[in-house]
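User: I'm preparing a small set of examples for a lab meeting where we compare how different chains pack in three dimensions. I only have the primary sequence for this one, and I'd like the structure in token form so I can line it up with the others. Please keep the answer compact; I'll paste it straight into my notes.
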Amino acid sequence: MINMIKKIVLAYSGGLDTSIAIRWLIETYDCEVIAFCADLGQGEDMDSIKQKALKTGASKVYVEDMQEEFVSDYIFPMLRANAVYEGSYLLGTSIARPLIAKKQIDIAVKEGADAVAHGATGKGNDQVRFELSYYALRPDIKVIAPWRLWPFRSRQSLIEYADRYGIAVTATREKPYSIDRNLFHISYEGGILEDPWTEPPHDMHTMIVPPENAPDKPLFIEISYEAGNPVALDGKAMTPLSLLKRLNQLAGENGIGRVDLVENRYVGIKSRGVYETPGGTILHIAHRAVESITLDREVMHLRDSLIPRYAEIIYYGYWFSPEREALQGLIDSTQRDVTGTARLKLYKGNCMAVGRKSPRSLYIPKLATFEEDELYDQKDAEGFIKLNALRLKLKRLLKDGQS
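Assistant: Understood. Below is the structure token output for the 403-residue chain.
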């Protein structure tokens, strides 16, 4: 297989793993390596990353600004589903991988490459996410996963390799944890975080201030929705990208969106992850607030029953699967009337929905009131209760008869 590969497209971030991967792939396969770097809003100097890839040995470097597509076609569909993995994780890394893989395959086809490669480890989820996406989009593509092949067994050994070959890397012996950042979130894993009892270092977080250092005065904002998508902030229409960027700033300043959890990886390993998802946390809460007055009860309960499955699909790497597409169609059909505005209070790490309104609201004050009304006859509740109690009464009568 090694002799058959002439050109590889590597998903390149400029971090420790992929920087080493360029050199290792060239030496191992004696072939051309093209680096692809997706700009998903990680806030890095893309030109410096490009030059680093070329200096490390890449024959060509693609740098693609995919931020608008990332928000509109990946983050927003996921937010319409209220996807949360294991009750806490808003899937910031998970949702980025299929888009990176999609563009990587496009470049491989354009360049006539034999194979694609990634820097994910053999213990993590990303290897699955990348490779399931590759095969779904290009069934005959060859996939190379250096972490499953090379002799290095730890990030420490990678750092030593980088020192030996003069490859500049950001990971250090003092801060060896892995960082993944995009427009939606930033994640920290490994190294000193592997002890689940240890609090993350105070200086580790970058997007969100410590809640205790947030302003002492609460901030009130309003987010407007149309058909399940946020379209305006405080009455001002904004593009998906500009809206998320602004909410990242506001949430970050108010200490909102930090998560520290031990999660279950798809490969079966429990892993401690620390996440910052500032704007996404606000959008999740705002969306549910608008849904609360616009969704029919049974439709909401049905959709909510599907959230764990939908979140698993994304977390496990099945974005391009028929089951995700089928679920997305059902979820999006529930969003047609999710139009309205949520008012939120941001204060020292908390985001609270304190108001919601909609031109399609199912909330009728005259019906919900505890005061006198003419729309609801309270006597009707008696028959409703007795019919629903019938099976409970029968069960008890049966039990008493057998005792």
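A couple of notes for your slides: The domain at 7-176 is CATH 3.40.50.620 (Rossmann fold). The chain has a mean pLDDT of 93.

User: Perfect, thanks.
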